[in-house]
Amino acid sequence: MVVASGSRDKTGFFTQGVKLKATMVDMARSMRKLGQEDPRRVVHSLKVGLALILVSALYNYHPLYSNFGTNNTIWIVMTVVLVFEFSVGATLGRGFNRGIATLLAGGLAIGAHHLTKNLGRVGEPVVLGLLVFLQASISTFLRFFPKIKASYDYGMLIFIMTFSFISVSGLQGHVIFKLAWERLCTVSIGGAACVIVSILVLPVWAGHDLHNLIALNIEKLGNSLEGFGDEYFKTKGGEACIDDKEILEGYKSVLNSKKSEESLANFAAWEPPHGRFPFRHPWKLYLKVGTLARECAYRIEALYGYLNADMQESSEVSNIIQEACTIMSVESGKALKELALAIKIMVQPSSADSHIDKAKSSAKNLKSLLKSGIGEDIDLLKVIAGVTVASILIDVVTCTEKIAESIHELASTAQFKSAEPTLSPEKLHSGQMKCVKSPQILNCPHVVINVSESTPPSSPSESSSAPKASKQRMDLYHLFLAQDIS
Amino acid sequence: MVVASGSRDKTGFFTQGVKLKATMVDMARSMRKLGQEDPRRVVHSLKVGLALILVSALYNYHPLYSNFGTNNTIWIVMTVVLVFEFSVGATLGRGFNRGIATLLAGGLAIGAHHLTKNLGRVGEPVVLGLLVFLQASISTFLRFFPKIKASYDYGMLIFIMTFSFISVSGLQGHVIFKLAWERLCTVSIGGAACVIVSILVLPVWAGHDLHNLIALNIEKLGNSLEGFGDEYFKTKGGEACIDDKEILEGYKSVLNSKKSEESLANFAAWEPPHGRFPFRHPWKLYLKVGTLARECAYRIEALYGYLNADMQESSEVSNIIQEACTIMSVESGKALKELALAIKIMVQPSSADSHIDKAKSSAKNLKSLLKSGIGEDIDLLKVIAGVTVASILIDVVTCTEKIAESIHELASTAQFKSAEPTLSPEKLHSGQMKCVKSPQILNCPHVVINVSESTPPSSPSESSSAPKASKQRMDLYHLFLAQDIS
After folding, report:
1. Do B164 and A77 touch (CB under 8 A)?
2. In A103, B61, B360, B408, which residue has its Cα 20 to 30 A from B69's Cα atom?
């Protein structure tokens, strides 16, 4: 019995050991994945360590600290930990909030002490308590304002904290001044360490991230649309060139990107000019593009519901509808990808217009064709999925046009370069096509190399940029062009 | 010249005064609006003030503080300001994070001091510095894990801060123990003040809010769908009963509710049993319902693109399609509203099934009707909008069914009461109808009164709960039922 129990214990111990090992391996794997997804995460972690080391070194070897004493130096460490954020903009925003709030609250608290110092041993704490109650309540309420919440939430917290502490502390006269001065110094030292490390060591700019996120989202929509066209075509016997599910469903991450875009735009507003982004770069316009991209993503979500819908046996009508759908989705997709590239390399997005025109004329032709009558007693049920897809795609084309307009506005406000007509569109396309397989436009250094070789705006040789993946599709497109009657 | 300048100055001063007044009035108005939207914001602000007053009073009148000294008492104030959140769950979460992180970091830092104390005057700070660097880097990296970010982000910050401070401080032996003990005491007092005020004074439960938010979102979808049916019908000469744009477009707020739902579910997990929510209430299932509701909202967004689409002159086919659309959207809308009510009053949502069945059979009938052929040479363009709307609505009916399934799962897991068949469905409907005009289900106290009088699950008298707003629609519905051939 004892032996059995002992052996069971050993087996249990062994099993637990194996489980623990599996958990550790899992954890190591997901840490590696987290770092590989965005190596800047690793850099950021090391930067926080570095900033702390810097203030520690200052603490251990600098005479400055002897003036402050242990209890004050914690504020330097605390400031570093609470202010150091992932991007420069977020760090500057928090540092600014902390500095200004400390200054304001300190000043007001000293004023409050001055006002109440003659009220006696009972009166003074009562009135001070009332003031603390009032400012805490009012400041807390102000934090509910969306605008204050977005940019000054941390400052409000520090304001309440500093005012309350100085008021409650019961300190008098010059001791308060000394305390307030020391607090300001420590906060400044900590804040400066954060800002310096954040900007000087491999800086992460929120503005740059917002710029890339918007370009990436538009590119994902483009890939999903182009992929939809190819997949839809494949069901009719054609050959699909994109079948990676991850790329097809890229639009899904656009559906819920509102919060990230808004916070990046908020942080970007704190940042100084950097890289290709000058002072007063129109960050708000990125949000406009983002909103329109989301509206397009909602349509694509509706569209993807029909990707695997029952296909009825083909008829002449459903063939025509499906071909038109393919053109609309592929051309909208190409237009969106050109727009994404234009944002990425900061040139005027003129090359997208020809694709939009093609998508629009395909929509128009489809309408005309249907209007002129098919001349046979058709079965509505057989074309219902096709008609719906066509109808949503017409909507998508409109969305694409709106996105293009908003990007044109962004490009002219932000003074993007004009595209130089030095290269044939094929080259640009070949450069871009490599991007299709990559989940992140950020990882396409070759795109940047193409900057000075961008495409001419709707040149006479425009037709050479038309889709070549499928000859059948191309022929149909010409058929549609020839049939344009309206 | 001098006079003119002076008069201009006066005018300028006056204009500025008027502007300042306008700004003040604007601000007061938006503060009032903010408070009226959710009066709990005002209560929360006063609660924060109250908690601060409590710890101040303790500070001024309790001998406890004499043991701590000024520099330690700031930690009580700081804990109150940083831990006190809007909901009980968030407050408990932050308090727990702060307490555990302080304890852990304090213990580890003391251990680190113990290990390094024999390394000499140069060796000790160097090794301690290395340890600070390592723990700060690793902890910062761990904060990027989504799960840790969601529940333990604040704890990680406090951990880095406390460990770094104690390691860097250069304090020795019993001084460190005293410091760590004092820190733990102050954090406990501050945390206790927060938790007590948060729970005892008009508590805001995140779980309750999540429950209401999900019910409200489902209700908004229902209103939008029902409104769509009515609006769509109105364009054909019928009379619409909902034309408040705010209610029609309620679905829009569902599109971006993911983040709020997730954070509420996170906070709810920290909360003790409260009100109607027992221990281990299945908060995760609410997120599932929320995700399905968002998918439905994407479809409704696509649908609303066709609300103002050009209506072609009516034909027999488009009439049939539009009538079927009206039934599908109105019945799905009614089903969603019944489901919302079932969540709200926590009963089994059986009464919604009959509406879903009607919507489904309408979809089926439409398909059969189209399949049996219309027998005339129809103009596809004239029915394209109708066919698209019908097709999206068939998708919406599927979504509604999925939502109903997930709510059934929620109801059985959370052991909602069964509906008691003591009242005819009309009464419930009349009670519910009052809700339609109200933008928030939360503000419908009369609904709660109906709890024990809820509707029987698909009783034989089911047809009496059919839509009565429009006789014409009803007749068509019966026509469809009679024609059911599949």
Report:
1. yes
2. A103
